[in-house]
Amino acid sequence: MKALSCQKKPSSIRWNPFLIKIAIHLRMKTTSQGYKYIQNFIKLPSERTLYDYTHAVQSKEGIQDAAVADLVHKSSSYKEEHLKYFNLEFDEMHIRQDIVINKKTGEIIGYANLRQVEKDLADIEAEISKTDSAHPVAKTVLVYLAQGVTNPLLSAVGIYPSRDLSAGQLFSRTWDIVYTLESCGLKVLCLICDGASINKKFFSMHPAIDPLSVKSQFTYATKNLAAAEDRPLFFMVDPPHLLKTIRNCLANSYSHKKSRKMWKNGEDLSWVTIEKLYAASPHKFASHNLTRAHIKLTPFSCMKVILATQTMSNSVSRDLREKRDHPTLTNCDTTELIKFIKIVNDGFDCLNGSGDIQGKRNKYNNLLLPYTDVNDERFKWLQEEYLGFFQDWKKSIEQRKGKFSADAREKMCVSHQAYESMHITSYGFIGAVTFMLREAHAPSVDAKRFNQDKLEQYFGNMRMSGGGSRNPNSQEFRNRANLVRIADNAARPITTGNTTVEQEEWIPDQTPLQKFFRTRKQ
Predict the structure, then answer these.
(1) What is the DSSP code string of 313-369?
(2) CB contact at 8 A, 220 and 175
(3) Is residue 69 predicted with pLDDT exceeding 60?
(4) Contact at 8 Å (CB) between 414 and 408?
(5) Could you tell me if 83 and 505 are in contact, meaning their C-beta atoms sit under 8 angstroms apart?
(6) How far is CA 408 from CA 264, 397, 400, 413, 415, in A?
(7) Beta-strand (E) ranges in 163-261?
(8) Phi then psi for 80, rounded to 5 degrees?
(9) Three-state secondary structure call for residue 484
(10) Which of 25-39, 163-177, 239-253, 410-424 is predicted with the least confidence, judged by mean pLDDT?
(11) The Transposable element P transposase-like RNase H C-terminal domain covers which part of the protein (predicted)?
């Protein structure tokens, strides 16, 4: 720093590329005045210097060619086959509905990204309905994020402003991304998304294959038509989203919305039992972690993953077993509820892993360990015990005596959306991991690479950029996406979000950055 302060001309300073990335991340997280305030204490590049790096590549919608090129360059040094595989995560984020004009190119930014065929169909529908066929303003952004299965690479490779996204639009955009990655030598293993109905419809649009020979009624894999060799493409629903869906089914059983009356083998599975367990242990030294936020769910708390994981946990099932004779729980059915919570907890551990490279969390829970053997007992457990539990549950409801309507019987189990998601996720996960171990010869595979945590953290960076926790408009999102790409691993995820931030080793990347060179006026 002393050497930097001795420089008479700031333009003569040559900044380390990683320091440039840190400065870009700091500028992205704060306002211009905030960055200048930090410069009073820390010697940082000027905003004009950062401009030359952040504008070397213009932001755009659609396939992010610069991000794909970065992945190709970084993966070119990999020799092992398994290091070439990536999972493709996709989801939508709400944005402000603004229309702006790019001052440099004159491009109007903010409309939904539609292909010519989609525009023609929209015009035909508008003509039939006698409505205005104006180009729709985007209200969400569809983002595709490629994450290495056994390598540390990560990048947003597709950004599409959208409005009322259809399964057909999702199909065409997804396969555009897959074909682009495969043509560059980046092999796509698995598509991961949340359990929205449009995503399930997207899965069902593909011709199903059955690499596990399980004869599933749901599509969990298809042929990767973009691959040079004969290779499957697997589908998965994000395990944390699946866990929240299952917890919400239980929460609405005889409580909250009261939309379900879950029943299994002669016992009711009721959220009221969880409420009474919380009431039976009011002191702060209870063996479970339940609080009022876990019990009285709101639209906001329903989205918190940590509340779902702590509710559907071994500590809660163990406490229910120990307190089943407590006066508060005298009239409550607990046997099947204990089994239900235990099976959901263990299934989540198998599908989500821990991502703990130091192995601190894995000492007492082998379900969190990385997968190293195609004959791992957890694969068999997921198929026979985890899915078998819910399949037997369905059968017991069908065989229940009494005059119940089809709708009433459907409400006795978890929702059909959750039932479908757990089958797609379990089979897709088993197929993808065994493929990596058997065909790609990976030494180990961590289940943490098969969820949407990195994409959720990416969205967190988008919302927190510019010093405010608000949704950006379409142009701001594109610009911020460019900044996150350049900052690379210097753009650390926020630790207060809705995901678990892995304690990864932070290795400074000092690869020279692309720079915009200004031409001097004559």
Answers:
(1) SHHHHHHHHHTTTSGGGTT---HHHHHHHHHHHHHHHHHH----TT-STTSS-GGGS
(2) no
(3) yes
(4) no
(5) no
(6) 13, 10, 12, 10, 12
(7) 187-193, 221-223, 232-237
(8) -70, 145
(9) helix
(10) 25-39
(11) 449-478
For 326-336, what is each residue's pLDDT tens digit? 888 888 888 99
Distance between first and last Cα of the chain: 36
Which residues does 186 contact at the CB level (< 8 Å), separation at least 6? Answer: 68, 71, 72, 75, 84, 86, 146
3-state secondary structure of 7: coil
Nearest 5°: phi and psi at 373? -135, 135
Give the Cβ contact number of residue 167 at 10 Å: 15
Nearest CA to 189 out of 231, 144, 143, 145 is that of 231
- The 10s digit of each residue's pLDDT in 448-506 is 999 999 999 999 888 877 665 567 888 888 888 888 888 887 777 776 677 776 666 66
| Residue 233, pLDDT score | 98
For 269, 294, 309, 362, the CA distances from 316, given in Å and listed in that order, are 14, 12, 10, 20
Q: Is there a contact between 144 and 156 (Cβ–Cβ < 8 Å)?
A: yes
How many helices (H) and strands (E) are present in the chain, helices listed first? 20, 11
Residues listed for the chain: 522
DSSP state of 260: B
Q: Interhelix angle for 17-29 vs 32-39, to 10°?
A: 130
Name the packing angle between helices 47-54 and 474-487 (round to 10°): 100
Question: Could you tell me the CA-to-CA distances from 349 to 198, 370, 426 in Å, in that order?
Answer: 27, 11, 12
pLDDT of residue 225: 96
Give CA separation, 294 vs 64, 91, 262, 314, 380, in Å: 40, 26, 19, 15, 32
Using DSSP, state whether 143 is helix, strand or coil: strand
Distance CA 251, CA 243 (A): 12
Tokens of 473: 């408009």
Q: Is 12 exposed, middle or buried (0-12, 13-18, 19+ CB in 10 A)?
A: exposed
